[in-house]
Design a protein that fits this description.
Elements: H1 11-27, H2 46-59, E1 61-65, E2 77-81, H3 108-117, E3 123-127, E4 136-142, H4 153-156, H5 160-173, E5 178-183, H6 191-195, E6 200-203, H7 211-219, E7 233-234, H8 269-275, E8 282-284, E9 295-305, E10 310-319, E11 329-335, E12 347-353, E13 362-370, E14 376-378, E15 387-390, E16 393-400, H9 403-406, E17 410-416, E18 420-424, E19 434-436, E20 442-444, H10 447-450, E21 451-452, E22 457-461, E23 467-468, E24 473-476, E25 487-490, E26 496-503, E27 507-516, E28 527-532, E29 543-544, E30 562-571, E31 575-583, E32 589-596, E33 599-600, E34 605-609, E35 615-617, E36 620-622, E37 629-631, E38 639-646, E39 650-659, E40 667-673, E41 676-682, E42 716-717, E43 721-725, E44 728-736, E45 744-751, E46 755-760, E47 765-768, E48 786-790
Parallel strand pairs: 2-3, 2-4, 4-5, 5-6, 21-26, 33-38
Antiparallel strand pairs: 1-6, 7-8, 9-10, 10-13, 11-12, 11-16, 14-15, 15-18, 16-17, 19-20, 22-32, 23-26, 24-25, 26-31, 27-30, 27-32, 28-29, 28-31, 34-45, 35-38, 36-37, 37-45, 38-44, 39-42, 39-43, 39-45, 40-41, 40-44, 46-47, 46-48
Helix pairs in contact: 2-7, 3-7
């Protein structure tokens, strides 16, 4: 996401998580100690098992409990169906999330049998089907997850066998006597279960080695549930804004995955709070979780201390039930002004969990809030670019036991009188076309990055894709003959991948593809291209383009890049498009594609790629880290010709973005326009003092460019000459004048106004109105380079 950064001030979120974890073990008086013996086995330490059990108990969330389905009574016979109670029980995540437990896992079946042995229920029986006599039946549903492997859309929905089992249990025992236990890593569909009117839904997550005992304690009432949701559970998969662009065939992550967060900050509860304030699309909101008792939450005061930058919220919580002890979680949310910087309707800023409260017992809580935590990141400079800011206006505070409940209880307003900069941060140079705003519209951010202009060229890196049907692989490489941005897309056989672009003006444009084929055979007609002018309607309406893209094999040379020319793509109107590539089974590695034309703008600057020549002698195309070059001007007499279209006749200033690696030569190349010599291009360097100009691996000074000597692929702009161009087609010829005076040319630059440059040294800037004067200014020894100024 563009310019999003994480700074130390945001460590408070991690602090909240850590405090929540520690509160679990301190709430019951559990303490840690370091033993001197090196022979201590944590797997067999009773204290370790107790910590694991308490953590699991505190995290279990009861989502539904109708008609007192829970807790189970001591005289009840309980049956359990589903492999999730034993053989398919998921203890924790895979990959780096896996924790070895030393073989001490207590699964739900064992936990429930332990509860029966202790007299908390009459019996527990593992069922093979919906048969037998039971007071309550549990159905176990399990899902798993691991790093490097994405869950499928189908994992969200209940499987047919699961629905059949639940239906059979309902038919046999009645819906109110069916309890669903979810052994899952993330959200799944609960709407079908609600429609079936099951008695209870309990989410035990992936609870660790003591999960079975923890679940049994909650189901039997030995522990009153107090877990709260850290997610929003929507009514349907389509109600999640992030559900677009998914594909059920995708399961394996590639080595690097790009995701376009067009929803920006509006994910999870921030989205629903902003766009579904009545929660019509939500089954269970963020922060939700049922208890076996009831609580009264009363805010008794709010104190603001501007000197310390803290707000204290004072809350009294009372257990108003008559039977069960329990714990409640008090949550504080805030809202911000929305005038300059977009913000969700509410965001969590603090919470606290009570101790175990007996019936009619109360506890006073104090929740500390850092005022600066209500700041917003300004990535585009509406107040100050790349900084956390607080915009002027009212910041409201809300208190409740979920985000939905808190919205009913505004407790205070904090007012900022003027815009404030809280913390200046750095810039992350990433790109995203647009992002969602709180009014439902989209704000275009990097529009320039995605826009095909009427004049010049636009390069699209293949890794900046919108979506892809199956797995793709990214490679990073810094080898000089490799990639334009160090990345590529490969493994494209039989895949469909898309790019979102903006077209400035309707018309037909050239399109080229820079690819490599290191296989044993040639690739013929590698892909088709479709242009969709309605990219946001959810329907694939692409118009097929006449594309012919074939690539000769270069054995064992997957980084030997070639650019395929000769194709065009048509856009019938200006605006946003989705460009779709449909690959066949044979397709090479793909670095980038370029959309361009050879039209010269009637005003301003036009850049024309030199490798799109129409005639040549001794010059060829060559790939480099910054894109393709026309290479081979080192021999006198070598040349390229370039056909261009000019809308407005007149004087233009022509220069080259080029490489002159071997000599500090003043005269680089002769330029011909329509067969007439227009002049000679010169290098921007001192012919009297060539040794002052060295290639460098150091970063250029801000705004300045080092001269290029002995650097094969580092291009720098030459001087300019005035040329007269006719309206319509013109032919520009670049002719090498001597050996090694000019090597590679990246582009031809045409301007309607001349530029000046300045030599830079430690004491002064020397401005010149013309590129023709390349002499070293008096007293400017040690100059760093040049930069351009408008004349």
């Amino acid at each position: 996401m563009k310019n999003r950064v994480i700074k130390n001030k945001r460590k408070s979120l991690l602090t909240i998580i850590l405090v929540a974890c520690l509160s679990v073990v301190t709430a019951l008086g559990i303490s840690f100690s370091v033993k001197n013996s090196v022979n201590v086995n944590a797997y067999r330490d009773p204290g370790s098992a107790e910590v694991a059990r308490v953590v699991a108990e505190e995290g279990i969330v009861v989502l539904r409990n109708e008609n007192n389905a829970l807790p189970f009574k001591s005289n009840m016979k309980i049956g359990g169906l589903g492999a999730g109670q034993d053989t398919a029980f998921i203890v924790g995540g895979g990959g780096s999330g896996y924790v070895h437990n030393g073989g001490n896992t207590i699964d739900p079946k064992t936990g429930m049998q332990n509860a029966a042995s202790s007299g908390r229920i009459a019996s527990y029986t593992a069922m093979g089907s919906a048969t037998g006599t039971f007071d309550r039946v549990i159905y176990f549903i399990s899902r798993t997850s691991t790093e490097g492997d994405d869950m499928k859309v189908a994992d969200y929905y209940l499987k047919d066998v699961e629905k059949n089992d639940v239906n059979n249990l309902i038919n046999k025992y009645g819906s109110s006597n069916v309890v669903i236990v979810l052994n899952i890593p993330t959200i799944i569909d609960t709407t079908w279960l609600i429609e079936k009117n099951v008695g209870a839904i309990v989410c035990m997550w992936l609870p660790g080695e003591q999960g079975g005992n923890a679940l049994a304690n909650v189901l039997t009432g030995a522990v009153t549930p107090s877990g709260k949701l850290a997610d929003t559970w929507a009514k349907s998969y389509e109600d999640y804004i992030t559900s677009y662009g998914t594909n059920d065939a995708v399961s394996q992550f590639a080595s690097s995955v790009n995701v376009n967060y067009y929803e920006d900050i509006y994910v999870g509860y921030r989205y629903y709070e902003t766009f579904d304030e009545n929660y019509e699309k939500v089954n269970y909101e963020f922060g939700f979780g049922l208890s076996y008792t009831t609580f009264d939450i009363k805010t008794t005061g709010v104190n603001v201390n501007k000197n310390t930058g803290k707000i204290k919220v004072y809350v009294t919580v009372k257990n108003t039930g008559s039977t069960y002890s329990g714990k409640e979680v008090v949550q504080v949310y805030y809202s911000t002004p929305n005038d300059k910087i977009d913000s969700p309707a509410k965001q969590l800023i603090g919470f606290a969990k009570t101790k175990l409260l007996a019936p009619n017992e109360s506890q006073n809580l104090t929740i500390d809030i850092d005022i600066n935590e209500m700041s917003q990141f300004d990535d585009v400079g509406k107040i100050q670019k790349n900084a956390y800011v607080m915009q002027a206006g009212n910041y409201d505070l809300f208190v409740g036991n979920s985000v939905k409940d808190a919205g009913k209880h505004k407790v205070a307003t904090y007012t900022v009188n003027t815009d404030l900069v809280i913390e200046q941060c750095g810039d992350i140079n990433t790109h995203i076309l647009k992002r969602l705003k709180s009014d439902g519209t989209y704000e275009y951010l990097d529009k320039e990055y995605y826009t095909v202009k009427e004049y010049g060229k636009k390069v699209f890196q293949t890794e900046d894709l919108e979506s892809i049907t199956t797995e793709r692989e990214f490679h990073a490489d810094t080898w000089f003959s490799g990639l334009t941005q160090g990345r590529l897309v490969r493994l494209l056989g039989n895949q469909t991948f898309r790019y979102r672009i903006i077209v400035e003006k309707a018309g037909t444009y050239n399109i080229s593809f820079t690819m490599a084929n290191g296989s044993e055979s040639d690739y013929k007609d590698m892909f088709e291209i479709y242009v969709d002018s309605t990219p946001n309607d959810g329907v694939d309406n692409g118009v097929a383009q006449n594309i012919s893209a074939s690539l000769t094999a270069i054995k064992d040379a997957w980084q030997n890049w070639r650019t395929i020319y000769g194709n065009t793509v048509t856009f019938d109107k200006s605006g946003e498009y989705l460009l779709t590539f449909k690959c066949n089974a044979q397709c090479g590695d793909f670095d980038y594609f370029t959309i361009y034309n050879d039209k010269v703008a009637p005003a301003g600057e036009t850049e024309i790629s030199a490798d799109t020549y129409t005639a040549t002698n001794g010059v060829k195309q060559e790939a480099c880290i910054n894109g393709n070059l026309a290479s081979g001007y080192r021999t006198a007499g070598n040349y390229t010709e370039h056909k261009i279209t000019v809308e407005k006749a007149g004087k233009y200033y022509l220069s080259l973005d080029a490489v002159t690696p071997f000599k500090a030569t003043e005269n680089l190349a002769d330029i011909y326009v329509n067969s007439e010599k227009a002049g000679t291009l010169k290098a921007l360097r001192s012919s009297a003092n060539p040794e002052q100009i060295k290639a460098t691996t150091e970063a250029d000074p801000a705004g300045y460019t080092q001269a290029s000597v002995d650097c094969w692929f580092t291009t720098r702009e030459t001087s300019s000459i005035a040329v007269n161009l006719n309206a319509g087609e013109n032919v520009i010829k670049i002719l090498a004048t001597s050996v090694d005076s000019l090597c590679n040319v990246k582009s031809i630059i045409l301007r309607t106004t001349q530029k000046a440059f300045t030599y830079k040294n430690n004491t002064a800037d020397y401005d010149f109105k013309s590129f023709a004067d390349t002499s070293n200014p008096s007293g400017s020894t040690g100059w760093k380079g040049y930069k351009y100024l408008d004349v």
